[in-house]
Specification:
This protein is mainly α and 80 residues long. The chain is built from four helices and two strands, in the order βαβααα. The chain has a two-stranded parallel ribbon.
């Protein structure tokens, strides 16, 4: 089973805890979904429109800051 894209690690940990408590992790393979976002706008869309995807606001804000920093200093943008 592959999950939707994971952006909220604490929520994922909580859900995986429930799965493990039921013993489901021993009966099936689980793969956490990874989707590399291209922009804050993409994250906002996914949070609002894609079932099962939760994107924390701090991550969206961080993407916005990275975009602003990318205009001048690529190293700073990567660090964000």
């Amino acid at each position: 089973i592959q999950t939707q894209g994971i952006y909220d690690i604490e929520l994922f940990r909580s859900q995986m805890g429930k799965i493990c408590n039921m013993g489901l992790h021993e009966r099936t393979a689980l793969l956490g979904g990874i989707i590399v976002p291209k922009s804050a706008m993409m994250l906002k869309y996914m949070d609002a429109s894609v079932a099962g995807v939760t994107v924390p606001n701090p991550l969206i804000e961080r993407m916005n800051r990275a975009k602003e920093a990318a205009g001048g200093d690529k190293k700073k943008a990567r660090e964000l």
